Amino acid sequence: MSLCRSLSAFRTPGNQLTFYHGDWRFPPGSRGGSAILRALRFASSATITHRDCPMNVVQGLQAIRDRLVVNDADPATISTVDIFLKRAALPAAQSAAAQSQLQLVRMLMRTPASNANVRIYNDLARLEEELESAAVTAQAVRAAEEAKPVPKTKKFYKQQKEKDDKRA
Predict the structure, then answer these.
(1) Burial 119-134 (b: 16+ CB within 10 A, else e)
(2) Per-residue pLDDT of the chain (168 residues; tens, 9 = 90+)
(3) Where is 56: in which H helix or E strand?
(4) How far is residue 117's CA from residue 122's CA, in Å, rounded to a whole number?
(5) Which of 15, 40, 48, 117 has fewest C-beta within 10 Å?
(6) 55 pairs with which residues across the strands?
């Protein structure tokens, strides 16, 4: 059973979704890669809604690695992401999930390796900027879709006809 299911009629009146935006922080006393995986496990246990579909951390890190390769990132950045990929592939980390690639990139930016090496941080900051701009574009598309008028249901027209019949 998937936690992420779309509604049969997303724009039908009555099918409303709630969206949660969390501030995921590392658990106290956590460091490095294990802290990221613990924070992601905590994040994956939170309430999931339609837009907040969890993604597998391994797949998310692989996508981040691919984007870094396309952006000609520093080899140290790619090796840092590879380290986290290896840790995320362990059986103990299989339950870890992330809300988005942007969340993963922000967590990678807070690691000791990125704090120690400016080039790693800059590569991740560039990727964060790309993901944020893509998110803003997607949000604008969603807002335009939501601004379209919603069709009235058959029930609405039945009730309107009954009211007109009562008046006559």
Answers:
(1) ebbebbebbbeebeee
(2) 334 444 444 444 444 444 334 444 444 555 555 555 555 554 444 433 344 567 889 999 999 999 999 999 999 999 999 999 999 988 888 888 888 899 999 999 999 999 999 999 999 999 999 999 999 999 999 999 888 888 889 999 999 999 999 987
(3) strand 55-56
(4) 9
(5) 15
(6) 98
Tokens of 45: 């246990």
Whether the Cβ atoms of residue 88 and residue 61 lie closer than 8 Å to each other: yes
Determine whether 83 is exposed, middle or buried from the number of CB atoms within 10 Å of its CB (0-12, 13-18, 19+): middle
Residue 96 in 3-state DSSP? coil
**Residue 111 DSSP symbol:** S
**Hey, what's the torsion of the CAs at 42, 20, 63, 55, to 10 degrees?**
60
